[in-house]
Amino acid sequence: MNTTLQQRIIDELTKGLTVPSCEEIEQRYPPRELPEGAEVTRLCPSPTGFVHIGTIFTGLLCQRVARQSGGVYMLRIEDTDKKREVEGARELIASQLGAFGIVPDEGLQPDGSSKGDYGPYVQSERQALYLTYAIELLKNGRAYPCFATAEELEAAVNDQKAKKQRPGYYGEWALWRDRSDEDIETALEAGKSFILRFKSSGSHDKRVTISDRIKGKVELPQNDLDVPLIKSDGSLLPTYHLAHVVDDYLMRATIIMRGEEWLPSTPLHADISLALGIKPFKYAHTPVISILDKETQNKRKLSKRKDPEADVAFWLQKAHPIKAVKAYLLGLANSNFDDWFREDPNKDLDDFEFSLDKLKTSRSPLLDMRKLEDYAKDVIAAMPQEHFNKQILAWTEVHDKPLFDAMMADPEYTKDVLAIERGGEKPRKDVAKWSDAPEQFGYFYDEIFSERFAPAIDELLSDVPADVIEVSCKNFLESYNPSHNKDKWLEAMKTAAVTSGYTFDRKALKANPEQFHGHLADFARIIRVKVTGKANTPDLYAIMQIMGEQRVVGRLK
RNA sequence: GGCCCCAUCGUCUAACGGUUAGGACAUCAGAUUCUCAAUCUGGCAAUACGGGUUCGAUUCCCGUUGGGGUCACCA
């Protein structure tokens, strides 16, 4: 292509924007001075409205790899598609990553500020950089203008399908790949718009080897697709492929960790970096977290539309302890994590020695909420009481104001309530997430009890005649003495049970079922339901000790 | 459909070519008797299939089947 025509294309392309030279850019982004073996990783979400749990997973791995090697973990916002961008999404990304403690060393911080010398870390603010390299490709004959219309492209694809050929813009199907200057000038004169395409160098029947830290050496067909480099939507922004190569080169990333779905496009990225004289990247394609489709019973990628679990907001709302979620994710990545962690759930997760090599055989694991809950119960049970109280109150303050107010109205009482059966060797493990708080502790507070728990009492005791309930409560109260210790309390309850027509003698009950209303357990159930509004609770004696005489008597009257 | 990745209990996974194929979660049974959560003890449960190579294959090779991913001016 002659230089005047080339300049004309460049002018059209940049719309008069002045772009720096490659040399200027290189100077601004010098190689990093880092210790031997330090890895520079990057997490690159798109601000499209919600954060995927897979982003948290990959982010966690990026952070671990960088930290453990003494390197740097960057967050880069990939907002080149202005159509899909959602207002406030970047802030959401930064804050949700912050909630998981996956705050980047460079890039957007949870507080909205930005850190790092290799920025900007938002692609739309790096526009001129991409244009520079796009022009470089044009000058090297590795990019060209394509004037094909959407209709022409569609017709080509249909033709390809009819001929059972691979669809795409390549080889002889690349309409503008080898056009003469005259053709281009004519199109330009006619006022036609064009798009800048990459001129591929590969051949589909030849192979290229990609080096992947997780999958090893992967052989893929070479790239022969002439993909668009700069969008023609007026934004002058690049497509992902150009952006990835330019950014990760300039930001001096040492390992590209990204979801496995990117594997098929790595030959293209290799082709582009080769054309730009950039050394091929080292990759680590991470497994995609999947779910079992209820209809087909097949495994599939978590999707936003069908699976609420895909959205990080869902996890934050359920409010499992962050540590448990991270532990679960770490366990998916490294199978030896489980043993390490179960020795002591109070260990600092940062002390676990994560290894990319152990991810090698992993294949898109299925999300298992039950295992997560198990981790969560352990984490919560092992948590120091003060920390537990703080978390419960923090959750209720935001999500259950009435309960929060009730808890704060009597802090000493609340302290006792939250500590129920948590001390000692075998702490209770019935709280798996902070959102369990209302169900677990609500009935201790009179207003909450009468509003949310008392209405269930009749239903829970629907199999017991009203007069039996009444007599049972009366008898229990007569024998009840709040200063009793547990043994005496139990004795008293047995007495009350017998007086009310129940027995604790299983054999007697079995021999003459009609003689009794039921077993001691049935009697206790009446008392439990009347006091708590629930069929299942912690130890009744412990509950009564905390509630105090007035409350217990009040509920049994 | 082309290309790529993957294949061990229901799930996540472990096993220098030689193990009674191990663990965790889930599940089931028993123990603990005021219920539940838990805890303890025990049980059920897997190498997709077919060929090779080998004294010997979960492990290496080939094929079949199955699952996943990808084939956009989305990332």
Task: State the main characteristics.
RNA-binding, Rossmann fold, 46% helix, two-stranded parallel sheet, 25 helices, Arc Repressor Mutant, subunit A
What is the name of the CATH architecture of the domain at 4-15 and 127-286?
3-Layer(aba) Sandwich
List low-confidence stretches.
none
Task: Using the alpha-carbon principal axes, give the shape.
Answer: elongated
Strand order of the largest sheet: 5-6-9
Percent range for β-strand residues: 5-15%
Q: Into which percent range does the helicity of residues fall?
A: 40-55%
Number of helices: 25
Largest sheet: 3 strands, antiparallel
Quick check: average pLDDT? 92
CATH fold description of the domain at 4-15 and 127-286: Rossmann fold
The CATH class of the domain at 4-15 and 127-286, by name, is Alpha Beta
Head-to-tail CA distance between termini:
97 Å
Structural class: mainly alpha
As a whole number of angstroms, the C-alpha radius of gyration is 33 Å
The CATH H-level homologous superfamily of the domain at 4-15 and 127-286: HUPs
Number of strands: 15
Q: Would you give an account of this structure?
A:
The N and C termini lie far apart (97 Å). By secondary structure, this protein is mainly α. The protein has helices at residues 3-14, 22-28, 53-69, 89-99, 127-139, 150-162, 181-189, 240-250, 266-275, 312-318, 322-333, 337-342, 369-382, 385-399, 401-409, 411-418, 437-441, 446-453, 457-460, 466-479, 486-499, 506-511, 520-532, 540-547, 549-556; strands spanning 40-43, 72-75, 107-108, 114-115, 143-146, 195-198, 207-212, 216-221, 228-230, 256-259, 283-286, 290-292, 299-301, 502-503, 518-519. The strands form seven sheets. Strands 5-6-9 form a three-stranded antiparallel sheet. Among the domains are: 4-15 and 127-286, HUPs (Rossmann fold); 455-556, Arc Repressor Mutant, subunit A (Orthogonal Bundle). Strand 7 (207-212) and strand 8 form a beta hairpin. It is elongated. It binds one RNA strand of 75 nucleotides through strand 8, strand 9, helix 8, strand 13 and helix 12.
